[in-house]
Amino acid sequence: MTSMNDSFKLLNTRTIPCLGFGTYLATRGKNPDVIGQAIRAGYRHIDTASLYGTEPEVGEAIQKSRIPREEFFLTSKVYKTDMGYEKTKEAFQRSLDKLQTTYLDMYMIHWPLPYVNYTDWRKLNLDTWRAMEELYFDGKIRVLGVCNCMPHHLLNIMENSIVMPAVDQLELHPGYMQEEAVEFCRKHGIVVEGWSPTGRGVLLENEFLKGLAAKYEVSVAQICLRFLLQSNILPLIKTSSLERMKENQDVFRFQISEEDMEAIRNMPLAGWSGEHPDRLRVAAVD
């Protein structure tokens, strides 16, 4: 990747821009126009979800931008309380209405289990996926994906469906790289997206990463993003600051050495949210 205009190629031959702008909690700060600002800063890959409550703001910002819809890569997700065949189709239509669009570039299962120890998750995922496949074949979804899925969740879909998951969105950052899940995705050609690339901001104060940032004369956030890109992972960036929006795009003018990449890979656990699809949430790891 040499610029934010470069893309990852997906299993169905479509492409996805290599930097995404995440909108979780994006409109709860002091800048109500944060999504419009991100669009003006050049972001065209916009990630939202029904859970985030930002779909109306994303739709409005795209309309106000006067940029053709086809220039955007727009993602939303079906939340775990809306899974199942009929409920997924209803949730999808609500998302379309809020986003003021007739199709989504990608639609994803947000979590594979509605709650921990839910025993019938395999059928629930397949019923949800069947609804998504029908929407895909109807041309209303361009790419099907999942979030927070481990290999056993992916295999259930892969072995019982027509359309393969093209993307798995996982919490990924220095100090929490979920190597087994990432390696499984690579083996099967599934593009990996990384949410919370700076570990909820905790990593911005990590002394080791601050040292690397000084070495490369960049910010810690840029180190985190560049590390993911060099690991062939698509980072999802979230910020309300125009300055940081632009800074986060400027990650293509430097390269982390393999020695430093290996050092980052071997960092101790840091920045983990405590979320896991099959386990009760634990205290976040700073």
UniProtKB/TrEMBL annotation:
Annotated residues for binding of substrate: 110
Keyword Lyase tagged: no
PROSITE patterns cross-referenced by the UniProt entry: ALDOKETO_REDUCTASE_1 (PS00798), ALDOKETO_REDUCTASE_3 (PS00063)
Name of one Pfam family that matches: Aldo_ket_red
Magnesium among keywords: no
Site location (Lowers pKa of active site Tyr): 77
Location of the active site: 52 (proton donor)
Cited InterPro entries: AKR, Aldo/ket_reductase_CS, NAD(P)_OxRdtase_dom_sf, NADP_OxRdtase_dom
GO MF terms held by the record: oxidoreductase activity, acting on the CH-OH group of donors, NAD or NADP as acceptor
Family membership: Belongs to the aldo/keto reductase family.
Provenance organism: Qiania dongpingensis
SUPFAM superfamilies: NAD(P)-linked oxidoreductase
Keyword terms of this UniProt record: NADP, Oxidoreductase
Domain NADP-dependent oxidoreductase: 33-265
Lineage: Bacteria, Bacillati, Bacillota, Clostridia, Lachnospirales
The protein, known as: Aldo/keto reductase
